[in-house]
Write a structure and sequence with these properties.
The protein is mainly beta. The protein folds into two domains: about 25-215, 4 Propeller (Hemopexin), CATH 2.110.10.10; about 225-410, Hemopexin. Helix content is about 10%, strand content about 35%. The two termini are about 45 Å apart. This is Hemopexin. Binds heme and transports it to the liver for breakdown and iron recovery, after which the free hemopexin returns to the circulation.
Length: about 400
Amino acid sequence: MKLLAHILCLSVLDRCEGLEMDAVAVNEEGIPYFFKGDHLFKGFHGKAELSNESFAELDDHHHLGHVDAAFHMHYEDNPADHDHMFFFLDTKVFSYYQHKLEDGYPKDISEVFPGIPDHLDAAVECPKPECDEDSVIFFKGDDIYHYNVRTKAVDEKEFKSMPNCTSAFRFMDHYYCFHGHMFSKFDPKTGEVHGRYPKEARDYFMRCSKFSDDSDHVERERCSRVHLDAITSDNAGNMYAFRGHHFLRRDEGNDTLKADTIEHAFKELHSEVDAVFSYDGHLYMIKDDHLFLYKVGEPHTHLDGYPKPLKEELGIEGPIEAAFVCEDRHIAHIIKDHKIYEVDLDASPRVAGNEVPIALFKKVDAAMCDALGLKVIVGNHFYHFGSPMLLAASRSLPEQHRVSLELFGCDH
């Protein structure tokens, strides 16, 4: 009966329905985990799964059916705790490293974090210098506790301008308090909230098909924390960035961004592309095992006979991670399964060849060549490489850049 209830819940639990998450934390690889009841959403999109599939021991003590709070520890001076995930259930705390429960856990919260109460509402890590010392901020009702992880001292705070948090989250060096399905960004030292908050969490942290009624479409897409699916610039230098059901466009010589749905501008695709590149006045749009071809213009014209199998058009099986064309203009570079391939677009038939491994990234979300070189986008950051050859040859990461700030001018 319990298994049947889990199955039924999995079938209806939808993050886009405005769920109030019980806890939010990132794992060791920076992937956000959203907890709701006995279930877990990994990343910014995808279906719910049972949390005990990833953290089996939580279920053994899961009397209330949900995680009260969670955070990812940042404490480089103590490797025994650094990069661990901590979960709080009632009076107990669990410490996991790479999804394995640490020996001796669960323990009483008072034993591991003396001075911190039971039955918490939220918790979030705060490394220095974002806080004066490496700390954890705990929330319970109106009470705020700054816990110094080195000295174990507790400093009670009063965050007057911030609502009570049902969960809290540190992401891209910013701090977010979730209250219901809304969120506010706050200063971890003072609790001050600056800017136009609260905002709808589904507009910024979920990949949902519809905007909320009062959403600013451009604001949502350029400042969303959801990763990009694809990005390209056409022959005229106009940039297109695709995410879920929507895309942003910025025309050459004009800093103004426009947002629209894929369904409206590329109706044959409907939504969610895997990769896009521009060649000879056309947008090559790849989804699963098929290639859609559009002539650049207003409106974009879908060519007769498409979509066609990706294998037939580019000589490679889908799905792929990213695709781009650089200054050579007739060579498409395809990224798939830790490798980069070259496809001569002037050849017939086209064949994916010159396979070279990529050592730097487990997965690439999107990539684009422009006048400044190659941008490789992973999560919410991108990296500059002078050429595809340098991407394949590099053994260390270049400087990291923020997608929302440096590509779209969003600083919040």
